[in-house]
């Protein structure tokens, strides 16, 4: 039997080579912004010159993702926001409608904290592995229902915007600050 890979889902991962140069500086800038009780901030870093260095780097990484897909059009970031997660806050599974490519950049994050979870867009109606509430099962590339990526300062995740993703309740008392960018055709 030869397994042919059909319909794969791809999440791009990049580590910012200059995170130590921008982290404190950017944290100081965003400390003056307004946040709701969950840590959401409407400020749009993609259109703010103070974040030019990061915006250009994210544009470049997204461009590599675009080339991988052999998309021919020019893509630009059209919306962005900031999230400074508070204890007990979470993100229910959602997608980013209206965009083609979405990203999350961890300005500050730690691997023991709540991860970024992507769900398999093809729901399996049966439970062939026999998973129960009391018995977890080992899955693999063919059977994964979710994939979890731990946070890390300077790490960028890139994905097609239709892919459902979320974050479980934050329980650790450490910083989890993200910039989220959304790209569409120019
Ligand atoms: Fe999201």
Lateral arrangement of strands in the main beta sheet: 1-8-5-10-3-2
* CATH architecture assignment name: Sandwich
Which oligomeric state applies?
A: single chain
Beta-sheet strand percentage? 25-35%
Radius of gyration: 18 Å
SS element count, helices:
2
Instruction: Please give the domain count.
Output: 1
Q: Which CATH first-tier class would you pick?
A: Mainly Beta
Hetero groups in this structure are: fe (ii) ion
| Separation, N- and C-terminal Cα atoms | 44 Å
Helix content: 10-25%
Q: What would CATH call the homologous superfamily? A: q2cbj1_9rhob like domain
Named CATH topology: Jelly Rolls
Along the chain, the helix and strand elements come as EHEHEEEEEEEE
Low-confidence segments, ≥5 residues, pLDDT <50?
none
> Biggest β-sheet: count, sense, barrel?
6 strands, antiparallel
Structural class: alpha+beta
Number of strands: 10
Calculate the mean pLDDT score and round it. 96
Morphology: globular
What can you tell me about this protein's structure?
By secondary structure, this protein is an alpha+beta fold. The protein has a single domain (11-121, 141-185), classed as Sandwich (Jelly Rolls). It has two helices and ten strands; from the N terminus they run E-H-E-H-E-E-E-E-E-E-E-E. The chain has helices at 19-30, 52-69, and strands at 11-15, 40-41, 75-84, 91-94, 101-108, 116-119, 146-149, 155-160, 165-167, 177-185. Strands 1-8-5-10-3-2 form a six-stranded antiparallel beta sheet. The chain is globular and about 55 Å long. It starts with 10 loop residues before the first strand and ends with a strand. The model has no long low-confidence stretch (mean pLDDT 96). Bound molecules: fe (ii) ion (FE2). The site of fe (ii) ion has 4 residues, from loops.
């Amino acid at each position: 039997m030869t397994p042919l890979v059909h319909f794969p889902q791809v999440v791009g991962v990049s580590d910012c080579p200059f995170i130590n140069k921008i982290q404190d500086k950017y944290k100081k800038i965003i400390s003056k912004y307004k946040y709701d009780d969950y840590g959401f901030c409407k400020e749009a870093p993609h259109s703010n010159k103070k974040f030019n260095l990061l915006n250009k780097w994210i544009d470049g990484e997204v461009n590599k993702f675009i080339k991988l897909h052999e998309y021919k059009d020019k893509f630009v970031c059209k919306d962005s926001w900031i999230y400074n997660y508070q204890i007990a806050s979470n993100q229910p599974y959602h997608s980013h409608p209206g965009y083609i490519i979405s990203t999350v950049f961890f300005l500050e994050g730690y691997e023991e904290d709540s991860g970024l979870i992507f769900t398999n867009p093809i729901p399996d109606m049966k439970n062939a592995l026999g998973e129960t509430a009391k018995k977890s099962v080992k899955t693999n590339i063919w059977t994964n229902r979710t994939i979890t990526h731990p946070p890390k300062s300077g790490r960028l995740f890139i994905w097609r915007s239709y892919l459902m993703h979320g974050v479980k309740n934050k329980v650790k008392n450490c910083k989890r600050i993200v910039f989220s960018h959304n790209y569409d055709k120019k």
